[in-house]
Amino acid sequence: MLNPYQTLNISPNATDDEITKAYRSLAKKYHPDLHPNDPIAEKKMKEVNQAYDTIQSIRNGSTQQDSYSTYQSYGVDLTSVEILITERRYQEAWILLCQITNRTSRWYFLSSIAHAGLNDRNQAMYDINEAIRMEPYNQEYRFFYSQLNRSTGSSTQRSGFRIPWILKMIFYIYLFQFLGRLISTWLFG
After folding, report:
1. What is the mean pLDDT of residues 19-25?
2. 3-state SS string over 39-57?
3. How confident is the model over 36-83, as pLDDT tens digits?
4. Residue 3 neighbours by CB under 8 Å, 6+ apart
5. Domain 1-60 falls under CATH 1.10.287.110
6. One CATH from 1.10.760, 1.25.10, 1.20.1270, 1.25.40 for 77-189
7. Which of the ends of the chain has fewer CB neighbours closer than 10 A, N or C?
8. What SS3 string covers 83-149?
9. What is the model's pTM?
10. Top-confidence residue, 9 or 155
C-alpha cells in the first residue's frame, strides 16, 4: 500500500470531512458492484479501504498516531523502519518506507520483510530480488531470499505465511552485526 494520504489523494492536514469525502468518492469509483470480476478495481478498492482505515486509526489516537507523527516530524530513516519491523508493526513500517524517496538496496530489503509480514509474498519476492540485484554479494539479503523462497516454495504443503521465521531472521541480522563489531574490535583494537 502507498502512503495512505497519497492513496486518497489528500493532504496529511486534510480535515475529517475532506478525508471522508475523498474516501466515498474513490469507494464509489472502484466499488465491486460497479466493476464485477475486475481484479484491478478490486485491488484499488482494497487499497482505498486500507488507506482510510489507517488514517482513521491515526486520527483516533491509536499507537500508530504517536509513532507516525513522531517519524513524520523528525524525518524518516531506515533505523525507524527497522525498529517497527522488529516490533512486528509491518503496516507502519511500510507507511514509513513509502515516504522515503531514495530507494536503496537496504530499502528494498526492509520493504521485503514488511511485505512478508503483511502476507504479500509476491511483493516481498520482488523487493528482495531488487535488493540482491543492486547488491549481489550481500549475504544478509541472500539469506533472507533463501528463507523467503523456502517459505514460498512450500506454500502448497501448508496454508498461510508463518511469521516466526521473520523474527529469527531479524535476530540473526542483529547477531551477525554484533559478531562483526566484536571481531573488528578484537582485530583492530
Report:
1. 88
2. HHHHHHHHHHHHHHHHHHH
3. 788 888 888 888 888 887 787 777 655 444 444 433 433 457 888 888
4. 95, 98, 99
5. yes
6. 1.25.40
7. C
8. HHHHCCCHHHHHHHHHCCCCCCHHHHHHHHHHHHHCCCHHHHHHHHHHHHHHCCCCHHHHHHHHHHH
9. 0.45
10. 9
